[in-house]
Write a structure and sequence with these properties.
The complex is a heterodimer of chains A (about 600) and B (about 140). Chain A contains 25 helices and 18 strands. Chain A has three domains: about 200 residues, 4-Layer Sandwich (Aldehyde Ferredoxin Oxidoreductase,  A, domain 1), CATH 3.60.9; about 160 residues, Aldehyde Ferredoxin Oxidoreductase Protein, subunit A, domain 2 (Orthogonal Bundle), CATH 1.10.569.10; about 140 residues, Aldehyde Ferredoxin Oxidoreductase Protein, subunit A, domain 3. In chain A, helix 12 runs parallel beside helix 15 and helix 22 packs across helix 23. The termini of chain A are far apart. With about 600 residues, chain A is an alpha+beta fold. In chain A, the strands form four sheets. A six-stranded mixed β-sheet of chain A has the order 2-1-6-3-4-5. Helix content of chain B is about 15%, strand content about 25%. Chain B is α+β, with helices and mostly antiparallel strands and about 140 residues long. Chain B has two domains: about 80 residues, Alpha-Beta Plaits (2-Layer Sandwich); about 45 residues, Alpha-Beta Plaits, CATH 3.30.70.20. In chain B, the strands form four sheets. Chain B has a two-stranded antiparallel ribbon. A two-stranded antiparallel sheet of chain B has the order 3-4. Chain B starts with a strand and ends in a 7-residue tail after the last strand. Chain B contains three helices and nine strands, in the order E-H-E-E-E-H-E-E-H-E-E-E. The radius of gyration of chain B is 15 Å and the shape is globular. Classes of the chains: A alpha+beta (about 600), B alpha+beta (about 140). Chains A and B meet through strand 13, helix 7, strand 14 and strand 16 of A and helix 1, strand 2 and strand 3 of B. Strand 13 of chain A pairs antiparallel with strand 2 of chain B. Bound molecules: iron/sulfur cluster (4 copies). The site of one iron/sulfur cluster (SF4) has 15 residues of chain B, from helix 1.
């Protein structure tokens, strides 16, 4: 039998200042955990059509049966209604969050209502407290918030500290939640939902033990997985250069979005590459709890802040996505400048991808005269020329400094609808795009994926396979659908997606068995399909319509490594996706005329 | 020859806690960050990295000297052996060990001290901890 602590769902009501624990074996038995359980809880808790920034919008955190128990089962799934897209909000983060929730004795946490004054939630095993966070509100940097909470909260070394920056307080629709200073619930605006509840932080720690059904069999499967993770090549790239290793290969094939995707090759890519950062700036690699890989790369940046050799040292986590969004997209080719900008954006609590894409649009709009010094409050963005312009711009977005920045804070699509330039406002389904202009599969994946993320269905790797051996559009779509289903199994367990090569479905079934769950690989895949369907139904309910998606012209004008894309082809592939994913009834075009 | 765990390369620690999970799995058959004789802690902020605390196998162990019932006795070569049946749960050993290598098990109300089995070192991906003969520091 699965350790019953997983079934505990902690419900916290910030309006009433109350909490309770309910046993939800029903959900965990059927949907495993993570994304599967979270979407069911969202269905239950989120009324149709609510304003995502109203107290009715719930925040759900969920872990799963493998959490804490096996290497790389290290992620927490967050679910909410997204203030950015208006439909499904889902974001994943690691750090210590997943293990902390599990060892505190919960499978999921649901936060409802809103506080009148700033608060943070402290969870230590079964002690749940809602505490005053007035002194933390408005703090300049989310890093500082972490430093304060580290001192006052128990569970040093094993706890998670999730918090928002001023962007979340100011309801920037792509504000993030920063976890342990180096991981993020980055996408789709969880930070704004925190802010709307006046929730500054959630701290979780636990000291419980989790029992397994068959300790011997568990130890055996564990060792098998551990050996494959550490002893083979399957995962080594994530440790060596981390995700930053993507910069040069994507640049080489002409898929690295540069200067708002006017280009796909960045002449300064070398100087912001994973190789260069590792050689000159990398000081430490660290891991999420129970991950022997350690893909988190920390750079050290020395900044002179006054004459006379006065230096401060910043420690900045870096990954491929911020390098793309705050580097090549803005034409920033100096590693120093890039790291300073990443640090600023993190400190403000802004999602790096959305912020970079929004500022790239703003730069082009400024150069085309759609906006002027009046809108920018005197800032003159000119690609990589002056990084400080972008540092100030990020700050102004986070503070909603004027009408223009406030529009940018609502997302690139909102800003472009108001000021013009929708053709080069690079969002899919309302979400600013990740950095892969690899071909049709990536674009269709961004448009159809449940989170509009590169991680939904990994179209970028399908495109790269198609580059090596010709593939029909139909086959691409088939792979997108299959990959998305598979990934929804992994994120129900919850396993880090970087470990997808380790956790094949047969392996997943084997890992679950000693824990007391017998399930076949086929059943798992069916479950993945069902979870995708449930999410699609939520999206449709909240107004998402795959047949009416805006496809920015820029995606079509700028050639991919697989050639120029046409709107007709992309729309046709979207149609194919809906059919192959078995979502024709969910996304019925007739039902909304 | 008696062995012990030595924290040889702390700067290489990535904070994965695999060593702790190994200890709790082997000794208690459970998954836990609390029930482990080896403890990994943050050194205070990401910039500083981690601290690994485990028994140093003292030759004249203060923890054993502090034990009023003889539950903890010196092991030949260094370190201690615990006889759980004699332990009264007074926590004197924990007080006596200034490195903090006596972990308290709240569930059983017993101390957890290293048994010098070396199992945890097999799961350290970066040779931060090594299993070595006492008095002969290995070079890794
Ligand atoms: S527990 Fe502490 S005092 Fe006792 S032998 Fe180990 S390090 Fe020395
Ligand atoms: S807690 Fe047990 S082992 Fe430790 S000093 Fe007291 S009696 Fe001895
Ligand atoms: S040597 Fe054995 S008892 Fe000691 S910490 Fe390692 S696994 Fe635990
Ligand atoms: S297994 Fe090694 S790297 Fe991981 S926490 Fe323990 S000492 Fe550090």
């Amino acid at each position: 039998m699965t350790d019953p602590s997983l079934y505990n769902v902690l419900y916290i009501d910030l309006t009433e200042g109350r909490y309770e624990v309910q046993e939800r074996k029903d959900l965990f038995e059927k949907y495993l955990g993570g994304t599967g359980v979270a979407i069911k809880l969202l269905e239950e808790e989120c009324p149709k059509g609510v304003d995502p920034l109203s107290p009715e919008n719930p925040i759900i955190f969920a872990v799963g049966p493998l959490t804490g128990l096996y290497p790389l089962a290290s992620k927490t799934v967050a679910m909410f209604k997204s203030p950015l897209t208006g439909n499904l909000g889902e974001s994943h983060a690691g750090g210590r969050s997943a293990a902390a929730i599990r060892f505190a004795g919960y499978g999921a946490i649901v936060i409802k209502g809103a506080s009148k004054t700033p608060v943070y939630i402290s969870i230590y095993n079964d002690q749940v407290r809602i505490k005053d966070a007035t002194a933390l509100w408005g703090m300049r940097s989310s890093y500082a918030v972490g430093r304060v909470l580290r001192e006052v909260e128990p569970g040093a070394g094993k706890r998670t500290i999730m918090r928002i920056g001023i962007a979340g307080e100011n309801l920037v629709r792509y504000a993030n939640v920063i976890v342990e200073s180096y991981r993020h619930f980055g996408r789709l605006g969880l930070g704004a939902v925190f802010g709307s509840k006046r929730l500054k932080a959630v701290v979780v720690a636990g000291t419980r033990s989790v029992k397994v059904d068959d300790a011997k069999a568990y130890a055996k499967v564990y060792e098998e997985i551990y050996k494959e993770v550490v002893g083979t090549e399957v995962m080594s790239k994530y440790h060596v250069l981390g995700t930053a290793e993507n910069v040069l290969p994507l640049n080489a094939i002409g898929a690295l979005p540069t200067r708002n995707l006017m280009q796909t090759r960045f002449e300064l890519a070398e100087s912001i590459s994973g190789e260069l950062l590792a050689e000159k700036y990398l000081v430490r690699k660290i891991a999420c709890t129970h991950c022997p890989i350690g893909c988190i790369h920390l750079a050290s940046l020395r900044i002179a802040f006054a004459p006379g050799h006065e230096y401060e040292t910043l420690i900045v986590p870096y990954d491929y996505e911020p390098i793309y969004a705050l580097g090549s997209m803005l034409g920033i080719g100096s590693a120093d400048g890039l790291l300073r900008l990443i640090e600023k954006v993190d400190g403000l609590g802004l999602d790096a991808i959305s912020t970079g894409v929004a500022m790239a649009w703003a730069t082009e709009a400024y150069q085309r005269g759609l906006i002027t010094d009046k809108e920018t409050m005197g800032l003159r963005p000119n690609w990589g020329e002056d990084v400080d312009v972008y540092i100030k711009m990020a700050e102004r977005i986070a503070r909603r400094a004027n009408e223009f920045y406030s529009a940018l804070a609502d997302g690139v699509e909102v800003a472009a609808s108001k000021y013009g330039g929708l053709d080069f406002a690079l969002a899919c389904g309302g979400n600013e795009v990740p950095g892969y202009h690899t071909g049709p599969a990536a674009l269709v994946g961004f448009l159809t994926g449940m989170r509009h993320s590169h991680l939904d269905s990994a179209g970028y790797s399908i495109d790269q396979r198609a580059l090596r051996a010709l593939m029909t559009d139909e086959e691409m779509v088939r792979q997108l659908v299959e990959e998305e289903r598979f990934r929804n199994v992994l994120t129900s367990l919850v396993v880090c997606l970087f470990a997808r090569g380790i956790y094949k479905l047969e392996r997943v079934a084997k890992a679950l068995e000693p824990l007391g769950t017998k399930v076949s690989p086929e059943e798992l895949l069916r479950l993945g399909a069902e979870i995708v369907r449930t999410k699609a139904a939520f999206k449709a309910r909240e107004g998402y319509d795959p047949y009416r998606l805006r496809i920015a012209k820029r995606f079509l004008e700028t050639p991919t490594p697989l050639g120029r894309l046409t709107e007709e082809r992309i729309r046709n592939m979207i149609k194919m996706y809906v059919e192959k994913a078995g979502l024709s009834d969910v996304y019925a075009p007739s039902s909304r005329g | 020859m008696s062995y012990r765990i030595s924290v040889a390369n702390i700067e290489r620690c990535i904070g994965c806690y695999s060593c702790m999970f190994a200890c709790s799995r082997l000794r208690f058959g459970v998954v836990s960050m609390a029930k482990s004789a080896i403890q990994v802690k943050s050194a205070g902020g990401i910039e500083r990295g981690f601290v690994v605390v485990v028994c140093r196998a003292c030759v004249d162990p203060p923890c054993a000297k502090g034990c009023p019932t003889g539950a903890l006795t010196p092991r030949p070569g260094g370190g201690v052996t615990l006889d759980e049946s004699k332990c009264i749960g007074c926590k004197s050993c924990r007080e006596a060990c200034i490195v903090g290598a006596v972990v308290w098990d709240e569930e059983s109300n017993l101390p957890i001290v290293c048994r010098y089995c070396g199992f945890c070192t097999k799961f350290c991906p970066h040779n931060v901890i090594v299993f070595e003969p006492i008095g002969r520091e290995l070079v890794v």
